[in-house]
Amino acid sequence: MPIADNTDPKPIVPSLSRSDDHVAKRSLSGASIAGANFADPSVIQTSDGKWYAFATRTIGSVTHIQAAQSPDFKTWTLVVNADGSQYDALPSMPAWVATGPSTTWAPDVMQVADGTFVMYYSALAASSPTHHCIGAATASSVLGPYTPVGPEAIFCPLDRGGAIDASGFIDNGQRYVVYKVDGNSIGHGGACNNAIAPFVSEPIILQPVAADGITFNGAATTLLDNAGASDQGVVEAPALMKSGSTYVLFFSSNCFADGHYTLSYATSTSVMGPYARAAQPLLQTGDNGFASPGGADVAVDGQHLVFHAAYNGGRAMYRAVINVVEGVVSV
Q1: Please, which residues have CB within 8 angstroms of residue 120's CB and are 6 or more apart in sequence?
Q2: In principle, which of 2, 195, 238, 321 could form an S-S bond with 178, CB 3.0–4.6 Å?
Q3: What is the pLDDT of residues 84-103, one digit of tens each?
């Protein structure tokens, strides 16, 4: 998901809350927002109670992966270096990533049992530089810097368009990675390159992994695919959570660039599915004043959600608290 350029190197991520602490409804003016561009955010809380978020790079920036931090999930600031320049959580790229201007997307950070932090990220593949693949990197502290694992990507189905938008999930001790096969990159044009029939499949895949969060330890399962024209051929940005006995798969559909983008969800009684889409999106353009909300991630607690929406030529991060009642999600 490419993002618009933003020249402010140290903006504050907007996150102004309503009194009920649900969807953070921002003001449309005010220096505190400063046009922060923090797309495809992921969120993690560490054992000391602090919160951290990671995001897609900003076009024109040499920073591969942005990072932000918060003491309370409400007030967020970008992480910067001692000289005031923006901190890069993933400063070095492995051999499989294309050289030249970097296009790194959609990071997600999880902590595994031995205390290691694992980052999943998407980047252009050197062997096919119009397609992205997903790599993994590790660090001993949540902010890193993260070091790529091995010389190869972990998910790289180039014959199907590549892969993007990986997100970790743990259920009863079993770890998973959910991601999107990037059919957009070989689509037939229109909105986000997949809105013209025949629509290219871009399934959301669930892969069981071992305790290290990286090694495969079971067969992959398809959870969802685009529904053709009604999705503009696009589903992406998967994130899983569990509430009681209900599994909730958050995803975005339609093209992020034209106002039809949504934050949607589907539910199942099994992590492997089948998943049934909710009757309407959780958030769409016009809700709470948002434009093109999507790209969500949910914390391990299954309650704290971050997402982006269009703002000031880029995409800013917002937050929400999730409520699930009888399989229906609200924020």
Answers
A1: 107, 108, 109, 110, 134, 135, 136, 154, 166, 167, 168, 177, 179
A2: 238
A3: 998 999 999 999 999 877 78
